[in-house]
Design a protein that fits this description.
about 15% strand, about 270 residues, two-stranded antiparallel sheet, binds NADP nicotinamide-adenine-dinucleotide phosphate
Length: about 270
C-alpha cells in the first residue's frame, strides 16, 4: 500500500468505492475488499448502503482503527440540525462511534450557508464523531472559502486520465489537503485508451491498473475505484509491484480531454 500523510493522519492512497453496490452484494463486496487488503472504504448517506458497509466492517474482525472510513452528508442535510441528526443516523448504520472523514457530498447553500454547515461538521469533529471533515465536488473558489473558515482535510472530486484537475490539485497541495479521485478509472472508459494499453503492455498490466497507478504516483492524491466484480476488486489492488516512469506519467497527463462523467443538474458551475 501507498499512504498519504495528511495533517498528521495516515490514509491508504487506494480505497474502495461503494456507489451503486447495495444490499447483500455490498456486504459481500466490502468484506471481500477488506480481505484483499483494502483499508479505506468510501460510502455516503445517499448510497443507501451504510448499514451493509457497517456489517462488513464489524464482521471483518479488523480493528476499527485500522480502517479509514469516509461517509458523506447528502445535500438535503446541510442545515446544522440535519448535519447532526443525519450523521448520528450514519454512525448507527455504520456500527461505529466515529468516521475518519465526514464530507459535504455536494455544495448546496439553499440548505444553509457553507460556514454554518462547516461549523456543524466541526462540532461533530470536536465531539469525536469524525476525525476529519472535508468537502466533495467543490470548485477552487469554494475550497478557498472553506479553508478560510476552518481546517479542511479533503476535497473529493472526479479525477482520472481523461479529466485534469490541475487547479484543485495545486490548491490541495498548498493547503496540505487530500484530493480523493472519484470515478478514478472513468467508469471503465480508460480501458479504451491506446496510450494506457501500450503503457500497460510494457509492465504486464491492464489500462485500469495503469490509470490507478498514475493517480497513486501523484502527491496528495488518493483513488477509490468501485468494483462489484470480485476479479475487478482483486486486480485493482494489484498495483503496488510496478512503477510508471516520468515519461509515462507525462504521456498519461497529456491524455486529458476535459471528459467529465458526473455532472448532475445540481452540480456547481465548474471552474477551470
Ligand atoms: N463524491 C461524489 O460525488 C462521488 C461521485 C461518484 C463516485 N464517487 C465515489 O467514487 C467511487 C468510484 O467511482 P465510480 O463508481 O463512479 O467509478 P469507477 O470506480 O471509475 O468505475 C467503476 C466501474 O468500473 C468497473 N470496473 C472496476 N474495476 C474494473 C476493472 N479492473 N476492469 C474493468 N472494469 C472495472 C466497475 O465494474 P463492476 O462494478 O462491475 O466491477 C464499474 O462499472 C464510487 O463508488 C463512490 O464511492 C463519489
Amino acid at each position: 500500500m501507498i499512504y498519504r500523510t495528511i495533517q498528521g493522519s495516515r490514509v491508504p492512497a487506494l480505497g474502495f468505492g461503494t456507489y451503486q453496490i447495495t444490499g447483500p452484494s455490498c456486504r459481500n463486496a466490502v468484506a471481500d475488499a477488506l480481505n484483499i487488503g483494502y483499508r479505506h472504504i468510501d460510502t455516503a448517506q445517499i448510497y443507501r448502503n451504510e448499514a451493509e458497509v457497517g456489517e462488513a466492517i464489524s464482521g471483518s474482525g479488523i480493528p476499527r482503527e485500522d480502517i479509514f472510513l469516509t461517509t458523506k452528508v447528502w445535500l438535503d442535510n446541510l442545515a446544522p440540525a440535519d448535519v447532526h441528526s443525519s450523521t448520528r443516523e450514519s454512525l448507527r448504520k455504520l456500527q461505529t462511534d466515529y468516521v475518519d472523514l465526514l464530507l459535504i457530498h455536494w455544495p448546496n447553500e439553499s440548505a444553509a450557508p457553507l460556514e454554518e454547515t462547516l461549523d456543524a461538521l466541526d462540532e461533530l469533529k470536536n465531539a469525536g464523531h469524525t476525525r476529519h471533515i472535508g468537502v466533495s465536488n467543490f470548485t477552487p473558489s469554494m475550497v478557498e472559502r472553506a479553508v478560510n473558515h476552518t481546517t479542511i482535510f479533503c476535497n473529493q472530486v472526479e479525477y482520472h486520465p481523461l479529466l485534469a484537475q490541475e487547479t484543485l490539485l495545486k490548491l490541495a497541495r498548498e493547503h496540505g489537503m487530500l484530493l480523493t479521485a472519484y470515478s478514478p478509472i472513468a467508469r471503465g472508459k480508460v480501458l479504451e485508451s491506446s496510450t494506457l494499453q501500450q503503457i500497460g503492455s510494457t509492465h504486464g498490466k491492464s489500462p485500469v491498473q495503469v490509470a490507478l497507478r498514475w493517480l497513486l504516483q501523484q502527491e496528495n492524491v488518493a483513488a477509490i475505484p468501485k468494483a462489484e466484480s470480485a476479479d475487478h476488486r482483486r486486480s485493482n489492488f494489484d498495483v503496488f509491484d510496478f512503477e510508471l516512469s516520468d515519461e509515462e506519467m507525462q504521456r498519461i497527463d497529456q491524455m486529458q480531454a476535459g471528459k467529465r462523467l458526473v455532472n448532475p443538474g445540481f452540480a456547481p458551475a465548474w471552474e477551470k
